[in-house]
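Possible race condition, two jobs.
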Amino acid sequence: MEIRTRLRQVRKTLELTQVEFAALAGVQANALVLYEAGKRTPRSPFFAKLNEHGIDVNYILYGTSETRYAEKLF
């Protein structure tokens, strides 16, 4: 599974729209659309902001998780 797929999975698990998730990550919604489409790769500030909000960046990047997402995504 790719980063873009896991990113979308996490967003949907949290029941957030692309606009809401993008705001949480400090980017514009159109940037998130490109990330989820695999047309652009998020940079570290994006992931740092998600981490500040308790989102499991390790799962998004590497597909491994020990957090609350594990139960919902697998």
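Job #2 (started ~2 s after job #1):
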Amino acid sequence: MKIVTWNMNGRGEATWHYLMDKIAPDLAFLQEARPPSTLPDTNLVYQRIPADNYRWGSAIYSPKLLVAERMVTGHEGWVVAGEMTLPNGTDVVVVSVHGSMISSPKMGYVFPNLDNLFRRDLKPLLNNREFILGGDLNASRLYGKLYSRDYYPSDVHGEFFDWVESHGFVNCHRKFHDSEEQTVFTSNTKNPYQIDYLFVSEGLSPFVTSCYVLKNSETLKLSDHIPVILELTV
């Protein structure tokens, strides 16, 4: 089963066609997504961010498997969730996350919003359940190492990932790679930050066979983020 997370940067049909035809995922977690009108609603769980200045939102795309939408109150448009049954019969919760930097007390700061989401708001949905979660978290261990004292009294980025990875969220990329890989390539990005991730529950971890960043000439043109892909044998 091929699973991808990708911030689409609000791009149009070319990016969507690459997703559907070239990557051809069984399940996709999408951020800054603007689904084409030709895409059947049965393949998509989508919420646009409820603010006039946003033309995009977050989505879960599943071309073959049905996803029953579930709400994560307080994060509308930034976090979408659902329940689905994997090909092997396992029932799972699936969540697409875009770490909001407008929901924290200081504009442009992803914390404490991201902490609240993982430590508090996802609990009712994920407790004692198998799950798959992907998204653009707007957080990075490298960012925390380089700039922690400039923005926060401690390395909250590192502390966040330490907490997440010790509380049942298996970081699939870290399972196969010693260090993070760059996934965002904006014009003002001066360091190789990975801010896009895929996580599974501990019960699904044995079925994860690979996780990699898809960097090529096409993905670099189609968005300012590049996809992260997970292979799950279920």
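The helical segments are 13-23, 113-121, 123-126, 141-151, 156-165, 172-176, 217-222.
Logs attached separately.
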